[in-house]
Design goal:
Blueprint lengths: L2 H18 L4 H17 L2 H9 L3 H9 L11 H14 L2 H15 L6 H13 L27 H20 L2
Length: 174
């Protein structure tokens, strides 16, 4: 799923959750932030490239808008860093370890982690094997479910229409 949709879905989810469990603005902002961080983290090597390379912005924009099989050529170092950051941030095993550490430290589940968990769960089914499948069990395996590619036009339209319907329903029942 695209970065904006992750943030919007979690925003709608926090409005719904707020009805059942009071959430402050900081918790909501952190949950939305953690919903978009997995995709932003993998862009860090490309942002560095964009800042310090003459053709960096071109590569960053080409990468951000690439269709399966049309990703721009990158140096092996940038390519590997981007790939492994994607794997780490989309791994349920990594998120599980972070969740357990937070639970031990805080003596409770830290609600903003729901943003990260929602990102992983959604991406498992909205990434195809051709274009960044979500490696749910990384670093044990790179396996990822072959879902619907999030950038398929009909799926993007359906996703945002569904989000609009859900958002209207949530806000109407406030």
């Amino acid at each position: 799923m695209d970065i904006l949709a992750h943030g919007l879905w979690v925003g709608v989810g926090t409005v719904w959750l707020h009805r059942h469990r009071r959430l402050d603005r900081r918790t909501t902002a952190l949950a939305v932030g953690l919903a978009v961080v997995p995709d932003l983290a993998q862009l860090l090597p490309l942002v560095y490239l964009a800042l310090f390379s003459p053709d960096g912005w071109t590569v960053l924009l080409a990468y951000a808008n690439a269709l399966p099989g049309y990703e721009p050529a990158m140096s092996p170092v940038v390519s590997e860093l981007t790939h492994h950051l994607h794997c780490v941030m989309h791994s349920a095993l990594v998120a599980g370890v972070v969740t357990i550490i937070c639970w031990i430290w805080l003596k409770r589940f830290w609600i903003p982690l729901l943003g990260w968990w929602s990102h992983i769960l959604i991406d498992v089914f909205t990434h195809s094997a051709d274009f960044y499948p979500s490696p749910v069990f990384y670093p044990v395996t790179y396996w990822g479910f072959d879902g619907i590619a999030w950038n398929t036009p009909w799926f993007m339209v359906a996703n945002y229409l569904t989000m609009l319907v859900v958002a209207v329903a949530v806000w109407r029942h406030r």
